[in-house]
Amino acid sequence: MTCLRDTELNLCQQYYAADIIAKIAGMDGRLCLALARQDLYFHPETVIQEQKLSVDLVPILLETQMQHVLPILEDIRRYLVRKYETMIQQILPQQDEYGKELNRPTDLELRHLQHYLRGQGLFFQEKDDEWFQCAYQARNDISHLNVLPTDQLDKLFAIQQKIH
After folding, report:
1. Where are the alpha helices (DSSP H) in the chain?
2. What is the per-residue pLDDT across 52-85, written as a single tens digit (0 to 9) for each?
3. Largest CA distance in the chain
4. Mean pLDDT for the chain?
5. Nearest Cα to 116, choosing from 124, 108, 127?
């Protein structure tokens, strides 16, 4: 992490890149130093090729994204549920497609917010709707084992900073 301080990466990007470096380099300090570049965040494949490493990057990126992004998605969900609790109360109770009873606003997952609120013609304010769409898409992509692009990560990291 210290090696990334001299980059223009923000703190969230640095932590994310540091986790990727740790997963690739392990205890190899020289490799850590060689990987600790701003490019690793934006173009990890290129950095790996330049270092002539034989690494399957996709599982590493997916694991790192799950560790960093899923907590952000939960923060966004909680933020929306708190802010729109009264509106959400209007559509409850519900039973989802798996038979799960949804009695309290906190019972709703992102997919429930998408299905039940939008199905009833209820929408979030513009900024919150953008946050919701970003979170919903990221959750969908990660669930289908798709690596998120850095611009999507940047949006999520920015939302996280605004929520906290």
Report:
1. 11-25, 29-35, 38-42, 44-50, 57-83, 85-89, 110-112, 118-119, 126-143, 150-163
2. 999 999 999 999 999 999 999 999 999 999 999 9
3. 58
4. 93
5. 108
The DSSP element (H or E) to which 76 belongs, if any, is: helix 57-83
CA distances from residue 23 to 15, 61, 98 in whole angstroms, order as listed: 12, 9, 36
**How many residues are recorded in the chain?**
164
DSSP state of 113: I
Tokens of 110: 């992102």
* 24-52 pLDDT per residue, tens: 999 999 999 999 999 999 999 999 999 99
The set of long-range contacts for 25-28, using a CB threshold of 8 Å and a minimum separation of 24, is none
Beta bridge partners of 94: 102
Yes or no: say if 55 and 48 are a contact pair by the CB < 8 Å rule.
yes
Q: For residues 85 and 80, what is the distance between their CA atoms, to the nearest angstrom?
A: 8
Give the pLDDT confidence score for residue 115 in this predicted structure. Answer: 87
d(CA 71, CA 85) in angstroms, rounded, equals 20
